[in-house]
Amino acid sequence: MSVEHEPIHAPSLIGRRKVLSGLASSGLILSGVHRAFGQARVTVTGEVAPTPIAIPNFVAGTPGDAEVGVGVAQVITNNLKRSGLFAPIDQAAFIERITNIDAAPQFQSWKQIGAQALVMGRMTRQSDGRLKAEFRLWDVNAGQQLAGQQYFTSPEYWRRIAHIISDQIYERMTGEKGYFDSRVVFIDETGSKERRVKRLALMDQDGANVRYLTKGSDLVLTPRFSPSTQEITYMEFGQGDPRVYLFNIETGQREIVGNFPGMSFSPRFSPDGQRIIMSLQQGGNSNLFVMDLRSKSMTRLTDTPAIDTSPSYSPDGSRICFESDRGGKPQIYVMAATGGGAQRISFGEGSYSTPVWSPRGDYIAFTKQGGGQFAIGIMKTDGSGERILTAGYHNEGPTFSPNGRVVMFFREPGGSAGPSLFTVDITGRNELRVPTPGFASDPAWSPLLS
Amino acid sequence: MSIKVDKTLVASVALHVLVLGWVMLSFSTKALEMPPEDSVAVDIVDDQPAKAMAGMKTGKKENPKPLVEKVAEAKPVDDLVGKITEKAPVVTDTAPVPQPKVEEKPVEKKPDPPKVVEKPKEEPKQVETKPDPPKVDPIGETIKKEEKKPPPKPVQAAKPPEAPKQRIVERHFDQNQIAALLDKRDPSRQAVTGDTLNSNAALGTAKGAAASNAATWGAMFMRQVRNCWKKPAGAIDAKDFFMEVEIKLRRDGTLEAAPAPLTSPRDSYQRVFLESAVRATIECAPYRLPPAFFEEWKDFIPQFSTKDAG
User: Fold this and answer.
1) Which residue from A222, A133, A221, A199 is spatially nearest to A439, judged by alpha carbons?
2) pLDDT, tens digit, for every residue of B147-165?
3) CA distance B274 to chain A (A)
4) How are beta strands B193-194 and B70-71 bridged, if at all?
5) Which of A234, A347, B140, B211 is packed most tightly, with the most Cβ within 10 A?
6) Do A47 and B308 make contact, defined as CB atoms within 8 angstroms?
7) What is this structure's pTM?
């Protein structure tokens, strides 16, 4: 799909609002120049709190677009609410009804219901059949437009437009890049525990638009997204040894990465999508290898009499974190992407596995096993600042959102129930279940689509 | 007669004397001279301590003339509460001998530093609980009244052993009769006399130290603005920083102008952090702050910190 976009400028405001915004901007211009002396300084501390935001239904530019206007507002509301950083206000509380997004809203009526931000939008069907989506983000208290954008796309991609607008709002209000316009590949599990059918599935990050990529006749494991292309690599147990596959989501094309002697495990892309790093079993040991996808040449990275597995690149491609039991128990190690000496970074109680480097580069997420618990945690790339995000039986397989702010993982409750997907903020707050059609495991988050 | 002198002994003694003499010389006390140090001029850069010593701007200046309400021979008055009256203090038969304190007061004594005289009628009870010596002895009055009244009822019908005590109890403080002890008259006092008239009482002194009250009203401000401040959650590992916003308030606590950011944000997180602070200061206005400190909070600078509320 193609999405065209261009900015919308704020409509001119009148009266007090104009004066206020003028004063605010003049204050900004003077900043750094004007230093007031003799005034008391009062330190204000506070707690992180979700921003109250009002998201009325998008106005229908043409009569038939009312439904999509409601849908877009709902998707944005759901996205922002699930992020934990916003508190969307119930539409029933709204005082003003937005009918024209080209005029400034009555800020007082939004202030009255406690909104600090207001999103107004309009969906209009164009003569060429495309859909035009416009939105404005207002700072209710300052009476200023914070963002404004319009997009053109095919009508069936209205959800995608809603995700893009959500990202714009998120970025403007938090100062961080968004993650809503992204997808998740996972293993869909159906059937009884003894006869479980596992299929490769793809969905939007909010659980919508589920697509099945394999039929379920063969066992599929550890799907991983390419950080730069719309490709997936995964393992499939067919008739013989497990194979590493490449799957192009756009074209549906599937190819075997290569035939390797022995078992191959946990393939993962390099940041540029040109190489795949994986572990190959050789006797009782396994070592790390990297394969160039163009030349199909393999390079050995480790050569130890231990089990080295689950490699993951740093976002700049210069280093690799991986799991190894060379010290006795499985622990996390970091080494240069070209191999060489590895440095152990995990030193806590228990064993550490499945390390994943954050797209932001600042953290490594892991599964930690100990005391009968499987916890999901993060630590800095030097091993400091370990933080457990969730603990219990049985959490596994962390994957980062494209902005590195949220970690998705799967939880196997045990018994006859199957696994489910969850997200948690890297602060450890806001744990939420991700809706899936059936049981789901082994999620991998895509990069931003746009 | 020749004395045989042991040469080694002589040598030993000589050496000891030499060593001890050297020790005494080298270990002798010597005055430790302190090199004179140049004085270093120190400027106080922070304006807060200076402000703490400045006193309240709203207080009246020190009154150069002592409080005098009547031209006469200077006579101090202890308590400036009450209306001025020309009446001589009432002395009853039963009143105790006026306390020597009044008589011994030297006439030449300078009038007391002026005291605050504000609405003397508002607190008559304070005066009543502290009866002045010249006033009627309340106990004496009570006794007088009690003489007219029938004796208080006995609590129990007949208790012969207690009967003789009745007389002694006559001056006993009876809680039930406390109203009778009260002096119903308005409090009064003698006029303060002196050689020139000056009825202005000074409020404090010009150099009186009044501490900066920012801690008090600042805490009130913070409690209020916190209710509106939604600190953005971005940048989990950003180093602690604060953003300054200058706000100007009217007496009624409303904003006189839009809050003016004083800190320039260096990245997108600092920008949204600063915006959240400005948003909060606008949303939470008007502020309820103590009017007495208006001069301090009419123009001040909240520093919004990334640190969590402690």
Assistant:
1) A199
2) 555 554 444 444 444 444 4
3) 11
4) parallel
5) A234
6) yes
7) 0.67
